[in-house]
Amino acid sequence: MSVRRWAVALLVLLPLCWGGVGYASTRTPTADDYRRAAAGAARSAYHALVTADLVGRARLAGRLPSPYTGNVLDDGRAAVSGAARRFAAATPVDAPTARLRDRLGPLLLAATDRLTDVRRAARAPDPSALRRSVDALAPVTAALAGLLQEYG
């Protein structure tokens, strides 16, 4: 009798669980979902830029070896590229999320460009190129910080 009850319970619970998974995977995204995705992408870019700033300044001060600097910068660039790809795959659901997309999209591209510039300058023998590229991170970092304050 106990086996029969388990079998009935399993036959009832299995379709319910399957339906819950189906609903969760096909439900229409909301504005909150989009804002969360945008905030995650902005956070990834912000952290990559702050890390690049720290690593670039440490490299300029002679406290970091070139291979380590390059690896950290490559990881940051890969993180921003991945975040930008995930963000681009999300579709805005209303006018405010479309404005958020229009504001964040160019910042993610700028972050990727600035990280590429820092990586390129870190390889150059002239430290002034690295200094200029590290200083150029600040406006994009500040813009991302402002966006994160708004959308969290």
What would your notes on this structure say?
- The protein is built from six helices and no strands.
- With about 150 residues, it is an all-alpha fold.
- It has one domain (about 30-150): Up-down Bundle (Four Helix Bundle (Hemerythrin (Met), subunit A)), CATH 1.20.120.
- Helix 4 runs antiparallel to helix 5 (about 125-135).
- The mean pLDDT is about 90.
Helix and strand topology:
Blueprint: H1 2-26, H2 31-60, H3 66-89, H4 95-123, H5 127-135, H6 137-151
- CATH architecture designation: Up-down Bundle
Task: State the CATH class.
Answer: Mainly Alpha
H/I helix tally: 6
- Give the number of DSSP strands: 0
Explain briefly what this protein structure is.
By secondary structure, the chain is mainly α.
What features would you highlight for this structure?
87% helix, mainly alpha, 152 residues
